[in-house]
Design the sequence.
């Protein structure tokens, strides 16, 4: 352990390493802030409070308070009714284009866009997941019968794995997970980390080579 700490202090805790590390960290923070600050679509992958008015933001939170949690039939009926009502108005162009006091966001189309993107489609996908999953498992079971007769061990094991992993899978709850999605989608930090690791390794090997080490 002492050797590891010694090597860490010798090779990492140096100005030639610390200064570039701080610069890369600042660049990373600036990129994260820029992506947060200048999103083109406030309701695409996450709701960005900077882009939405206080009213839109409150309506978004209000809807999540209503629909988060277990996906009950009552919630399904409610979101379908809400969505269908707005979609009918949009399709028929039968709505006030300007500010509408009764609309949650202040605009009918704003309500439609918000509800479709962040509530109706996600809940619909979660509800249909079990049915789609069952079709996948049923097909895999049929494949197992076929590949047993054909003595195809590879395809047999593959379909057995599908049945084992996907049978009886059901999603019961709906929550706002866009923050996690954004975290997983973000990859600029990986680039920064790779640059830093490459720089440290280059510095380490160059230093050792200059000391006469065989590399």
Sequence:
């Amino acid at each position: 352990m002492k050797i590891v700490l010694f090597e860490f202090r010798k090779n990492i805790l140096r100005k030639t390493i610390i200064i570039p590390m701080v610069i890369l960290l600042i660049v990373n923070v600036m990129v994260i802030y820029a992506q947060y600050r200048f999103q083109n679509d406030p309701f695409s992958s996450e709701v960005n409070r900077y882009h939405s008015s206080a009213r839109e933001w409150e309506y978004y939170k209000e809807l999540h308070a209503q629909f988060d949690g277990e996906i009950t039939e009552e919630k399904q009926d409610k979101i379908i009714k809400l969505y269908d009502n707005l979609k009918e108005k949009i399709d028929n162009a039968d709505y006030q284009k300007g500010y509408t006091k009764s609309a949650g966001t202040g605009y009918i189309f704003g309500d439609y866009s918000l509800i479709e993107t962040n509530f109706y489609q996600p809940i619909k996908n979660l509800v249909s997941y079990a049915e789609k999953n069952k079709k996948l498992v049923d097909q895999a079971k049929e494949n197992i019968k076929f590949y047993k007769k054909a003595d195809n061990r590879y395809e047999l094991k593959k379909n057995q794995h599908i049945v084992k992993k996907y049978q009886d899978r059901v999603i019961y709850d709906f929550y706002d997970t866009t923050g996690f999605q954004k975290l997983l989608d973000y990859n600029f930090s990986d680039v920064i980390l790779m640059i830093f690791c490459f720089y440290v390794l280059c510095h380490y090997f160059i230093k050792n080579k200059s000391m006469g080490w065989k590399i």
Notes: Residues 108-150 form the longest helix (43 residues). The chain has eight helices and two strands. The radius of gyration is 27 Å. The first strand starts at residue 69 and ends at 70.
